[in-house]
Amino acid sequence: MKKKLISTLLCVSMVATMLVGCGGNDEAADDGNAGTETEAEEGDDTEAEEGDDTEAADDGGSASAEGGKVYYLNFKPESDDIWQQIAAEYTEATGTEVKVVTAASGQYEATLTSEIVKEDAPTLFQVNGPIGYQNWKDYCMDLKDTDFYSWLLDKSLAIEGEDGGVYGIPYVVEGYGIIYNQAIMDKYFATEGAKAASMEEINNFAKLKEVVEDMTAKKAELEIDGVFASTSLLPGEDWRWQTHLANLPVYYELKDSNATDLAELEFKYAENYKNVFDLYINNSCSEPGTLTTMDVTSSMAEFALGQVAMVQNGNWGWSQINGVDGNTVAEGDVKFLPIYTGVTGEENQGLCVGAENFFCVNSKASEADQAATVAFLEWLYSSPEGKAHVTNDLGFIAPFNTFEDSDKPTDPLAQEVLRYMEDSSKTSVSWNFTIFPSQAFKDDFGFALGDYCNGSKTWEEVVETVKTRWAEEKAATATAE
Amino acid sequence: MQKTLKKYFLVFILPTLLAFAMAFIIPFILGVYLSFCEFTTVDNGKFNGISNYINAFSSGSGFLSSLGFTVKFVIVAIVSINILAFGLALLLTKKIKGTNVFRTVFFMPNLIGGIVLGYTWQQMLNAVLLQHGTNLLAKSTFGYWGLILLMNWQMIGYMMIIYIAGLQNVPTDLLEAARIDGATGTQTLFKVTIPMVMPSITICTFLTLSNSFKLYDQNLALTAGAPSHQTEMVALNIVNTFYGRTGYSGVGQAKAVVFFILVAGVGLLQLLFTRKREVDQ
Predict the structure, then answer these.
(1) Alpha-carbon distance A267 to nearest alpha carbon in chain B (angstroms)
(2) Is residue A237 located within the same domain as residue A252?
(3) Residue A132 and residue A359: Cα distance in Å, rounded?
(4) Number of domains composing chain A
(5) Does domain B60-276 sit in CATH 1.10.3720.10?
(6) In-domain check, residue A206
(7) Are the C-beta atoms of residues B46 and B37 closer than 8 Å to each other?
(8) What is the CATH number of the domain that holds A328?
């Protein structure tokens, strides 16, 4: 009899642990997916109770920031620590619970897709422009009446819906161009028969090409392996070419036709793209045939170690350059040069400056949570403590009028971006890759460039691929809507 | 005893049933439903008939070409893995010194995750190919044979263990009788041993078949489909469709359903075919 009792008990406990195990697994799986997860509220009993109370009050109908919670799904893994710190600080200051979860690199869309259907869904997330907004429009709230939007300096940067509402607000402005090492350039200018005497003379493609090719000829003397860092074309590591560099021909084509979007890309600046792309691959520290094995991190390391003089990337690359062990590049020597491609009148061209990270507030969250989320954003972008985090810790160039000159980031590349933006003789190139039809298009462009470097595609075939894939993808995404 | 077991039947089956329902049946039904919808997340699907299935088979979607590549891969992988694994099992059931060490060593690659294996092999193959001025992503044949190599390296050990278990179960009196009757080594192998290990062959071909068909991690890490989708297998194609462009998650879902039916069908056929050849001892 006793035996039976024991076995029944065992059975029950087994079932219980199984069920608990299932629940636990779910959490663990989330962690795996979402990278790191820390709740700002460290399970403080009294506070948790308070939270419950106010929530109960909210059910009574009052909609305010009181009692609302913020859940931010962060896009950049490298800034996870900073966001956790901001969340903890905000909770301490205001009592609002802020949870920050960071998606693993390249997994943002996948993480968002699974997180947003949960009961405890992100209240704050980001999209990457009009194309990303199309995917998430059912979940984006109109932010037109918020102070946060009113502070935005350039209202045209925000994502507007068909109904005129504002559904995405850019929270950081970034710039990219050719990063160069002043020390190596100075060394070159001092050599005999140098094609230029200072960087100021390099203001168009012809001059750039002349200097770069001369530098390649003198690379032993300059103690470099090549002028440009490797043109990384490993799948998934090719965004500097199929997105950023590709922005330039698209920018000029849009400018010529005075359009904001194109159903078909003529790619009439293909030759210009080829100019600079060929220059990159033929004057690099790596042979063209090896480029499909290279990733971005190694390109940035080549630059940081002083093996090359130039690399194309954006101001976010500073942390990467700075973080390389044995980094030989002095902070004062890291500068930006615009990407010249041989277009007439490019002497006045500046860096490519724009935004592709837009905050969206979840329209399906409760009103209290939405209010709390907006309040959190407004605190972050207007209070002294919040702004200090934005500029110093996150290193953002914030496009809002709440930021004074003293609130600007101090890292060398961000300062260079600001210098070009403030220089009235230069025209910044806007980021038009937000209208690129799809990830599939970009991937195929990257594949084609890889094939070109490996010699299995001619340039004409690359151009053909870009044109047909653009048209196909534009058509496909248009009918799918 | 029987009665008691029957009484507790539900208690014993319930946890597994619940887990199976949560992790498999419910997602599967939801997945089939979503393949007829346009959706961003699992709860905002809008029904749009069979247009996802039409798009899945349209020429630009790459589904058929990736299927072709997968079939080519699967055939070679099944044959090579099983022959090599069987050969190793035969060797390691002979009385050689250190068989246990060898068995462990051959089994070990199976314990490494697919992504890690993919990147490791990418580095190794590139190290060789770069010596010859080319690289893994330059030609689709490199990627193809790279995948075959990788898959063999990973799966052979596991299949070998199954074959060893089968070989050890071949009754020694049968082998002895064959020897006394004057059968040669080859005759014994084909007329006695192989028919006796048919159950192992069934399991091994099924495992290699389904694993090769569904291969994703290794494919993603090794080539990610380069050059130009030529080494893209079906699973990778589905994921790329799902996330590749706005509004195409439904098409990815439709491809996944088609893929499921295909793999299940081929798997069942293979089981029927090899089962028929199994003999009772």
Answers:
(1) 20
(2) yes
(3) 12
(4) 2
(5) yes
(6) yes
(7) yes
(8) 3.40.190.10
Claim to verify: residue A290 and residue A327 sit in the same structural domain? yes
A13 vs chain B: nearest CA distance in angstroms? 11
Among B41, B55, B123, B125, pick the best mutation site for testing chain A contact (most A Cβ within 10 A): B41
Phi-psi region of A46 (alpha: psi -120 to 50; beta: other; left: phi over 0): alpha
B11 with A11: Cβ contact below 8 A: yes
Q: Does B131 touch chain A (CB under 8 A)?
A: no
- The dihedrals phi and psi of A393, each to the nearest 5 degrees, come to -85, -50
A residues 343-372 near B, CB within 8 Å? none
Do A346 and A233 share a structural domain? Answer: yes
Same domain, A253 and A139: no
Q: Per-residue pLDDT for chain A (481 aa), expressed as one digit of tens each?
A: 455 655 665 555 555 554 444 443 333 334 333 444 444 433 333 333 333 433 333 333 333 456 789 999 998 887 888 899 999 999 998 989 999 999 887 788 888 988 998 888 999 999 988 888 888 888 999 999 999 999 988 888 888 888 888 999 999 988 999 999 999 999 999 998 888 888 888 999 999 999 999 999 998 999 999 999 999 998 888 889 999 999 999 999 998 988 888 888 989 999 999 999 999 999 999 888 888 888 888 899 999 999 999 999 998 888 888 888 888 888 889 999 999 999 988 889 999 998 888 999 999 999 999 999 999 999 999 998 899 888 888 888 888 888 887 778 888 888 888 888 888 888 889 888 888 888 889 989 999 999 999 888 999 999 999 999 999 888 887 754 4
Q: Residue A450's domain spans which residues? A: 175-353+418-480
For residue A17, being part of any structural domain is answered with: no
- b/e per residue A250-279 (b: at least 16 CB within 10 A): bbbbbeeeeeeebeebebebbebbbbbbeb
Please answer whether residues A398 and A386 qualify as being in contact, where contact means their C-beta atoms are separated by less than 8 angstroms: no
B248 — contact with chain A (CB < 8 Å)? yes
Cα of A367 vs its chain's centroid, Å:
29
